[in-house]
Amino acid sequence: MEQEILKKVEDNAMTLEKIYTSVEKTRKYFLWMLIISVVVIVLPLIGLAFIGPWFIGNMTSLYGF
User: How many domains does the structure of the chain reveal?
Assistant: First the structure.
């Protein structure tokens, strides 16, 4: 009976290690998706906030509005 309990504990430890590895891979995946989303969406919007008024000012002065 003691051997069965030890085997179950070892099996649980192995399963827990596999789950931990899987969770860490998922965490890294979500981190990289967040970084890519920020780079692709947020940074261009910030750039547009600074470049947009300058560009509109140049275009209106060019066409005399």
Answer: 1
25 lies in some domain: yes
For residues 27 and 45, give the distance between their C-alpha atoms in angstroms, rounded to a whole number: 26
Q: Is 54 left (phi over 0), alpha (psi -120 to 50) or beta?
A: alpha
CA-to-CA dists, residue 38 to 9, 16, 46, 49, 58, angstroms: 43, 33, 11, 15, 29
pLDDT score of 41 = 95
Does the pTM surpass 0.85? The reply is: no
* Chain CA centroid to CA 45, Å: 18
